[in-house]
Each structure stands twice: as structure tokens, then as C-alpha cells.
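Annex B. Sample input.
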Amino acid sequence: MAESRSETLCVAWHGGDRFDIQIRGHSVRIDQPRDFGGSDTGPTPTELFVGSLAACVAHCAERYLHRCQLPAGVSVTVRYDLGLQPAHLSRVMLEIHAPGLPEGLRDSFTAAVRHCPVYNSLYMPPEVTFDVLTTDHEAVCHHA
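Annex B, continued. Sample output.
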């Protein structure tokens, strides 16, 4: 059985509603739309979360097609609803477009897609803790 891994990423503020997520040498900008006070230089955290789910599903789907030696070219369209009090995603609907998938493999394809770690994290939520630091400390982030 595979062991779990521990990973670290960092989010640093860059003025206004802008934050950069540093992940393994990659940088992803997060912002808010102009009509919510941001400067719209990147997706919102919620959009990135939903996009991560869709990308994870697409990745698992492509891996399945590759293993079965079927034509590649999956795309995923997501529609989602936001709930209030507390703010949360109340519904996420994914449409997986797999034009080369034979009808007889639909169930095994769906089972493979359900191995997506982001999807599984919604059903088996991780323990989330907060450690609020208010004094100088050794920064994990390296501001660019």
C-alpha cells in the first residue's frame, strides 16, 4: 500500500485582493473580479477550487483512456452554485466529454474518474487546522 505524502505550498499577498500561490516553482495568481473590489488579474479562490476539481477529473479520465488505448481528448465543463451563510459551494455539476469512449465502458470510466483526489477530498474531508502567527517568524514563502 502506498504511503501518504506531505506537501507544502505558500500563498503571499500582493496588494488589494491579489495573492500568489507558490507551488513547486509555479506561481498562480488569485484575485477577485472588479465588481467585487478586485482587479481581476486571476481566478477567485472558489473558481480555482472548482477548476482544480475539473482538472483532476479530466486527468483521471485521460489516464483511463490511455490505459485502455482509446482516443484522447477529454474535456470537462463545470457549472456550480454558491450558497450563502456560510459561503460555500452548494452544488457542482460536471459534464465529462469523452468522444472516444465506447458506451460499454461508461461505468468503468466513471469509476476511474471517481479516483480523483480532489473529488475524494469532498467526500472524505481532510482535517483542517489553523495556526495564527502574529509575530515575526521564519517565512515559508519566498516573496517574489
